[in-house]
Amino acid sequence: MVVDDVAGSSRPSEVDRLIADLESPDPIRRDASVARLRVLGPRAFARLARFIDSSSTSSARALAISALDGLEDPHAVEIAFAALGAADIETIVAALNVLRSWVPREAGTRLLEAITAIAVDRARDARVRVAALDALSDLPDDLVRPIRDQAPPPEAGGPPPDNPVAARDWVEAHGERATLATLHDAIKLFRDAESRAETSGERAEWLRARAVAHHLLASRGSRLALYDARETFSAAKDPLPAGFVETMVRLGDASCLEPLARAWSATHDAGWRAQLSEAARRIVTRSRLGGRNAVVKGIRANFAGFI
Hints:
Elements: H1 11-21, H2 27-40, H3 45-52, H4 58-66, H5 74-83, H6 89-99, H7 110-119, H8 126-135, H9 141-150, H10 164-174, H11 180-196, H12 200-219, H13 226-235, H14 242-251, H15 257-265, H16 270-286, H17 294-302
Helix pairs in contact: 1-2, 3-5, 4-6, 5-6, 6-8, 7-8, 10-12, 11-12, 12-14, 13-15, 14-16, 15-16
């Protein structure tokens, strides 16, 4: 149950004004409204829930859901979960973004089951399916991999599957306008082609194409293929193309530190080792992982000199 605003306070009128600002044509005003609603937190939940369930524009309702992001209150989960039943794409995607941080922490499997059903539903819009997979990206890879494998096949009109140079050119030319689903499917396609390549030169070209796709996903803040980057670093014996490091710098979390450390310990290339250490330090700083963090302590014990 969502707790309503405190009776007799001045907050309800402020919440009403902020919610009205979500439909303002002024983007600065809209952003300020979202930020203030986050500060108000539970005091705004009841009115936010009613607004999200209203007939207002989908963009405004999506902004209202985004005001729940990062709030450590179970009521925020309930509001976002209810929004998964919306009819429009923007609202569902916003709800999935909010639920991502809660999925690994839930005691049961309600969120996991609901989001998995969305991810594998071929009748869903690709943007919704991608957001669902992204919402599961903080779970262990062995749990999410079967879900990714069941997801619908690549969209038509993607990069060519048989020429790595042409594939990379396609991603560089069209990647900024491509959907996140297309870029994720491209990474899977490139990785499969890389594993089948008969020469080291061909494998290297597919790896470069994959790095470009990773860079574009990371530049758009999508963690959809972070699992692939982690696995690539874990197995790396030589320096990887820049797109992989950029992905870690932008999106990496505690789960990425050991893969980076393994790549660091597998090479004697001083420049490459410096890049990996710097990427790890950026992750530690951004994620606020102190020296007492179990992952950091383990890395320092097993990979002395890395961070």
